[in-house]
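Morning, I've got a small favour to ask if you have a moment. I owe you a coffee for this, so here goes:

…
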Amino acid sequence: MTESDEEGIADLPPSAKLVYKVLEYNGPLTQKGIVQESMLSARTVRYALERLDEIGVIEEDVYFADARQNLYEITDEVVEPEAAVSD
C-alpha cells in the first residue's frame, strides 16, 4: 500500500476502514462474506465498498461459483520496473 492509499483510507468512514481490514485479513470475499465477517449491514458494506473503489484500493471481479455475486479484494501494489538503459 502506498502512502497516498494510506492517506485516502484515513479519510474514510469507520465502516470502510473495517471492510478494508476484513479484506486484508481474510483475502478475497463476496459482499455476503464481508457482511458475515464484519457484522455490518449489507447496505453499509455496499457503501463502504463504493468508497474503497473510489480511491482505488480494492478491485471487483466475477465470483465464478455464483455469477450473481462479485468478489472483492485489495489491489496489489503496482511496482514499476526500472527503465532499461540502452547504450
Summary: The beta strands are 29-30, 58-62, 70-74. The CA atoms of residues 10 and 33 lie 24 Å apart. The first helix runs from residue 3 to 10.
